[in-house]
Specification:
The protein has 279 residues and is mainly alpha-helical. The protein folds into two domains: 6-89; 121-278, Intergrase catalytic core (hpI Integrase, Chain A), CATH 1.10.443. 50% of the residues lie in helices and 5% in strands. The protein is built from eleven helices and three strands, in the order αααααααβββαααα. It has a three-stranded antiparallel β-sheet. Helix 2 packs across helix 4.
Length: 279
């Protein structure tokens, strides 16, 4: 039974979530906490995972000091989902998932929150100017994020075919379905030049924005980059990718844009969205 490799089993599990690129990449990243040597470092075959291995991994997550309780619970939930898949998909595999030996300790790192943080125009310009002079690829990525207010997951999942520079819009696949975001003529000129260069690159990826490795950007790479930018520019705010979306909506409100129009521009499709989070 152990002829199949761990990676093949992981790929088979992740294939179930191929309909959502964000869910697929998030689950792959969470499973790395169990297998990678710089994390828990399990090096056996998944068919041989014991109850002790499962408890030890829970204890490893439970005592991490650099992530919040909710993040730990998410990683644990995905790990359990993976184990459940193995037992149901493959014959004669039994992995005991303990119930009473997995109790979360009472004190954890508090979840980071920046839901009240917005940027002013000067800070926004400062960040984009910094990127323009140092990394044009990141500049285009974050300027598109700035002008559209799209979610970072939607932006990273864009393929070249999703960009229409002539009509100045991108089509994104979000958690509420297919969406359309519009951008300025100025950005369209930049993107037109960029797109010609992008499609000429030899790569198996269809991603609109490519990393140095010619692959789709990972979310943690983008988060790390914007965090370093803010530090180097001495901006004393906890700015994340979602801050750009919140900032755009707040600036629209200050310009007198009606609430319903702002919802449409953010591509919200439900009427009961918690809109207070964006202003």
């Amino acid at each position: 039974m152990t002829e199949i490799t761990n990676q093949q089993i992981i790929d088979r599990y992740l294939k179930r979530f191929s309909h959502s690129k964000s869910s697929h990449s998030m689950r792959r990243y969470c499973l790395q906490y169990f297998f990678r040597s710089d994390y828990f470092g399990y090096n056996g075959h998944v068919f041989n995972i014991t109850k002790r291995d499962v408890i030890d991994y829970f204890d490893y997550l439970n005592h991490l000091d650099d992530i919040s309780l909710q993040t730990k619970k998410n990683k644990w939930m995905i790990f359990r989902s993976f184990l459940q898949f193995i037992m149901e998909y493959y014959d004669d595999v039994l992995i005991v998932i303990p119930r009473y030996s997995t109790q979360w300790k009472p004190i954890h790192k508090k979840a980071d929150s920046n839901k009240d943080v917005i940027m002013n125009k000067e800070e926004l310009k400062k960040i984009l100017d910094y990127m323009y002079n140092r990394n044009y690829n990141y500049y285009l990525l974050f300027r598109l994020l700035t002008e559209t207010g799209m979610r970072i997951g939607e932006l990273l999942n864009l393929d070249c075919k999703d960009l229409n520079v002539k009509k100045r819009f991108v089509e994104a696949e979000g958690k509420t379905g297919r969406k359309v975001y519009y951008f300025s003529e100025s950005l369209a000129r930049h993107l037109e030049i960029y797109l010609k260069e992008r499609v000429s690159k030899e790569t198996d990826s269809n991603a609109l924005f490519l990393s140095i490795q010619k692959k789709r950007y990972a979310l943690r790479t983008i988060n790390h980059y914007i965090k370093n930018c803010v530090i180097r520019l001495d901006i004393e705010k906890r700015i994340s990718c979602h801050t750009f979306r919140r900032t755009l909506n707040t600036l629209r409100k200050r310009m007198g844009c009606p609430k319903e129009d702002r919802k449409i521009l953010l591509c919200h499709k439900v009427s009961d969205v918690n809109f207070s989070c964006y202003v």
